[in-house]
């Protein structure tokens, strides 16, 4: 079976983890700080805070912006429920925006219509490894913009890495993300206010006052793996782009929609849109030993029971989008098998 996604773990990763275990410092003893420094320098922000997941990074960022009950936060319909959860944890009201058909990223036009007096933040997830072509215009809305880079570490917008444009950005290092720590996340920001508040709330111990705080810290075990993975980010991205280029060529004559060209795309996912029913397509490929998936399990407006007619683009994409296997460990031979099988299934 060719899996839909898998982490890229190499021999050196085992060595690095062995060393941490030998050191007996498993929680926080320098490696977390190193990882924070390396990532913020890579993206270009002043501060970084490592967390135990992308979801907790997003939650702390919202708290860092003083978002609470009565505030509204805009997020897109076509993203995993983690983003919705973070807004709910903060006690804020989620306001759901439709997406663009071509990029499958949050719609600027629909977002504009949903900005009201109580809007306190916009969460912009860069879906599938591609930044939003409308980023400049999102920034001009003058609402604090949180870039969700969970799927797009290393992607660029106008030549600069995403994650350094908004008031803050978050990353995820879940097992199948661009780089992994097993579970983990990061907040990047150049705002000392967000940094200080998130830093205060991330841990409960050694505090003179009491307020609700969290235990959202990353461990040195995770950071050690993260550091090793981050070193290889350029080769990871190069390999992802190679496979995407191969798929682009292989499918150029097929009657399907391919990812729209973007020089900054890192192809975290290779998402095609097909005309045949997706469930049938998934079954046919499964019989050929290839795992494919809808890229988002269920759109958020459906979870929230909102009127489907208000999210026409998300509905259209939800019915037609399929994510093909793409990751650095995928071999040329596997990519070839996938291309042949997809063309047959179509
Ligand atoms: C994975 C993901 C998250 C959540 O990250 P976790 O580390 O799993 O909590 C948030 N947003 C997006 C866009 C993601 O892909």
Q: Give the beta-strand count.
A: 11
Estimated share of beta-strand residues: 5-15%
Cofactors, ions and other ligands in the entry: pyridoxal-5'-phosphate
Question: Helix content range of the residues, please?
Answer: 25-40%
Order of helices and strands: HHEHEHEHEHEEEEEHHHEHHHEH
Give start-end ranges of low-pLDDT stretches: none
> What can be said about the biggest beta sheet?
7 strands, mixed
Radius of gyration: 20 Å
Distance between the termini: 20 Å
What is the approximate shape?
A: globular
Mean pLDDT: 97
Given the structure, what is the number of helices?
13
Question: Which structural class best describes the helix and strand composition?
Answer: alpha/beta
Give the strand order, joined by hyphens, for the main sheet. 1-9-8-5-4-2-3
Short description:
The protein contains 13 helices and eleven strands. The protein has 346 residues and is of the alpha/beta class.
Model description:
With 346 residues, the chain is of the alpha/beta class. The protein is 39% helix and 14% strand. Helix 3 packs across helix 7 (192-201) and helix 9 packs parallel to helix 13 (332-345). The two termini are 20 Å apart. Pyridoxal-5'-phosphate is lined by residues 53-55, 79-80, 82-83, 125, 148, 150-151, 172, 174, 185.
Keywords:
single chain, 346 residues, alpha/beta, seven-stranded mixed beta sheet, two-stranded antiparallel sheet, 13 helices, 11 strands, 14% strand, globular, binds pyridoxal-5'-phosphate
Topology diagram in text:
Elements: H1 11-23, H2 31-43, E1 47-51, H3 54-64, E2 72-76, H4 81-89, E3 93-97, H5 108-113, E4 119-125, H6 135-140, E5 145-148, E6 156-157, E7 160-161, E8 168-172, E9 185-189, H7 192-201, H8 220-231, H9 233-250, E10 270-273, H10 278-287, H11 300-303, H12 312-320, E11 321-324, H13 332-345
Parallel strand pairs: 2-3, 2-4, 4-5, 5-8
Antiparallel strand pairs: 1-9, 6-7, 8-9, 10-11
Helix pairs in contact: 1-8, 2-8, 3-4, 3-7, 9-13
The structure holds pyridoxal-5'-phosphate.
Residues 53-55, 79-80, 82-83, 125, 148, 150-151, 172, 174, 185 line the site of pyridoxal-5'-phosphate (PLP).
């Amino acid at each position: 079976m060719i899996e839909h996604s898998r982490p890229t773990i190499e021999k050196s990763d085992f060595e690095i983890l062995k060393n941490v275990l030998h050191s007996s410092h498993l929680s926080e003893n320098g490696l977390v700080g190193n990882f924070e420094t390396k990532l913020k320098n890579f993206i270009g922000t002043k501060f970084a805070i490592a967390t135990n997941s992308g979801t907790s990074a997003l939650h702390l960022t919202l708290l860092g912006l003083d978002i609470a009950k009565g505030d509204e936060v805009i997020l897109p319909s076509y993203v995993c429920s983690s983003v919705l959860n973070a807004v709910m944890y903060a006690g804020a009201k989620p306001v759901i925006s439709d997406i663009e058909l071509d990029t499958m990223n949050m719609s600027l036009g629909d977002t504009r219509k949903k900005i009201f007096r109580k809007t306190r933040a916009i969460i912009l997830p860069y879906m599938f490894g591609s930044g939003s072509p409308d980023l400049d215009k999102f920034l001009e809305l003058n609402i604090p913009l949180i870039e969700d880079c969970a799927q797009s570490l290393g992607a660029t917008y106008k030549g600069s890495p995403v994650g350094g444009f908004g008031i803050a950005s978050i990353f995820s290092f879940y097992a199948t993300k661009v780089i992994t720590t097993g579970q983990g996340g990061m907040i990047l920001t150049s705002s000392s206010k967000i940094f200080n508040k998130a830093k205060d709330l991330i841990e409960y111990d050694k505090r003179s006052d009491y307020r609700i705080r969290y235990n959202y810290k990353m461990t040195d075990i995770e950071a050690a793996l993260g550091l090793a993975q981050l070193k290889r980010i350029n080769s990871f991205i190069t390999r992802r782009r190679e496979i995407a280029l191969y798929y682009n060529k292989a499918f150029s004559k097929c009657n399907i929609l391919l990812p729209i060209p973007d020089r900054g795309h890192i192809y975290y996912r290779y998402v095609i849109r097909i005309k045949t029913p997706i469930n049938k397509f998934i079954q046919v490929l499964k019989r050929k030993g290839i795992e494919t998936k809808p890229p988002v399990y269920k759109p958020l407006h459906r979870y929230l029971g909102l009127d489907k007619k208000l999210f026409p683009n998300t509905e259209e994409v939800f019915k037609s989008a399929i994510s093909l296997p793409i990751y650095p460990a995928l071999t040329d031979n596997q990519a070839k098998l996938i291309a042949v099988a997809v063309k047959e299934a179509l």
